[in-house]
Each structure stands twice: as C-alpha cells, then as structure tokens.
Design a protein that fits this description.
Layout lengths: L3 E5 L2 E5 L10 E7 L10 H8 L4 E3 L17 H20 L7 E11 L1 H9 L27 E7 L19 E6 L7 H10 L6 E6 L31 H19 L1
Parallel strand pairs: 3-4, 3-5, 5-6, 6-7, 7-8
Antiparallel strand pairs: 1-2
Length: 261
C-alpha cells in the first residue's frame, strides 16, 4: 500500500496509517532515543528499514524524553530504560497484528547516545551508576534482565561511561555496528573506547568514525521551522551535510542488519 503525507507533530511522514502488514515473517528492530529526546528524530532511518522488510518500533522513554525529562541523571533512569525497551519488544510479540509476522528470536536494537547505553544493558552489559545519580550518594550496580532474542546492536554515538567497571561488557557477544562522530561534543572518544575494550569478541565489532560529524548528525533533518542555532539537535559542524549522510546511514545500517539478523 502506498503511503501519503501525514502530519505527526511538527513532522510530515510518508506513511500509510493502519495499513495491513505485508505477508511474511520479519525481524524486529527497536530504536532507543537519546536522553531528553524523541523517537521521531529517527524517523528517516525507521522509515527506510520499514520499507526494507523489517518491523520497526519507535518507543518513547517515559521521564527521559523531550516533554518530561525528570529522570535524567538518576539511577531510576538507568534501571528503567532497558525495561522500557523490553516492554516494547514484548508488546510486539504479544500484539495480535504483529505476533505472526515476527521472527521469534531475531531482534536488533538501535541506540543513539543514551539509547546506546540502553541497548548495551539489555544485550548483557552490567552498568554501574555514579554516586551523584543515587539518593544514597553511592555507586549502584544496575541489574538488567538480558533479552536473549537480541541478535545485533547498532550503536550511534553511544553513551557508555556506566560500563567502566571491569568485565561489565563481557557478556555482550552479539554483532555490533558502532558509528561515532569525529566532532562529538557529548559522547567523547572515552565512551567508544570503553566499548572497544570491554566487548570480548572484537571481531564482532564494526567501528567507523564519521568524518566531521557531530553528536546530533545521526538525527533526521529537522524542518526549516525548527532549524536554529538555539536548537542544538538541528545543528552540525560547519560543512557537514546531514541530508546526504542520512542516505549513507540508512544503507549502512540496513546492510549490517540484513546480514546479522
């Protein structure tokens, strides 16, 4: 069924609302947005993958999104974020419209920034909070129920400093596409190094640094009405073409996921 332009908040999406699902069995992709962000800022990637034989979920993280960010910087957020994604996964497998169209053990997570933390935790990482994030003022190891259905991760400028403890990523053994930004002003290279050093099977990591990209360059381009120097998510380093990069990002993520799940 052909899509048509539909307005979702400030965005225009080319979609077919309430359409029947295509005949077949497909892998499930869940995208976890960044802290204080929105699921819709990954609409370009989600739309591309949905058009290439994946079922894609775009959940919003309660209390850590653009409308309500009261849990940012708290241990509650570290605990809850992986649970949100697991609830979303279960919701698809339990839903009468999707259950018979999903491959039972073929799930991939895409996480940007804090979404990268979320994906690593649910895939076997054991995070530890910082003292300032807990009411007790003490570090706290976060217990996360690992989801064995997860078969691959795509990490975009991931936040990983909660995995600095020794062996905290030793159980993350799924293939990982790790894309980082050369001029990232939020998740510095320290985050990347934690992943590269901590994941036990180095051969399963594909890492690429995106030249001249910033932290928000992985987001879908914003409408002109939202593009401003006062709105950092809409901005890129001088000379970086986000529209052009989105095409490359879509193809690279698709190629990786099609091979791994």
């Amino acid at each position: 069924m052909l899509g048509k332009a539909e307005k979702v908040g400030p965005y225009i999406l080319d979609v077919s609302l309430n359409a029947l699902i295509k005949t077949g069995i497909f892998p499930l992709i869940i995208i976890s947005h960044g802290s204080g962000g929105s699921q819709w800022v990954y609409r370009t990637l989600a739309h591309y993958l949905a058009g290439h034989n994946f079922i894609v979920g775009l959940p919003e993280h309660p209390f850590n999104n653009r409308n309500n960010n009261t849990w940012q910087g708290t241990v509650h957020n570290l605990i809850a974020r992986p649970r949100h994604i697991q609830v979303a996964i279960n919701g698809f497998f339990d839903h009468r419209n999707f259950a018979f169209h999903l491959k039972p053990d073929k799930v991939a997570l895409i996480g940007h920034s804090m979404g990268g933390y979320t994906a690593l935790a649910l895939a076997g990482g054991v995070p530890t909070s910082f003292p300032n994030e807990s009411p007790s003022g003490q570090p706290q190891q976060i217990t996360v129920a690992v989801d064995s259905r997860i078969k691959a991760l795509v990490l975009l400028a991931p936040a990983a400093v909660w995995f600095m403890a020794e062996k905290s990523l030793s159980n993350v053994k799924v293939p990982i596409l790790l894309l980082t930004a050369e001029k990232d002003e939020y998740t510095f290279y320290e985050h990347t190094q934690i992943i590269l050093d901590g994941v036990p099977i180095k051969e399963k990591i594909e890492h690429r640094v995106i030249a001249n990209a910033g932290h928000f360059s992985f987001l879908s381009p914003f409408p002109e009405s939202m593009t401003s120097n006062t709105f950092p998510p809409s901005q890129d380093p001088p000379g970086f073409d986000r529209n052009h990069f989105q095409d490359k990002l879509n193809e690279e993520v698709f190629t990786f996921l099609a091979r791994e799940i």
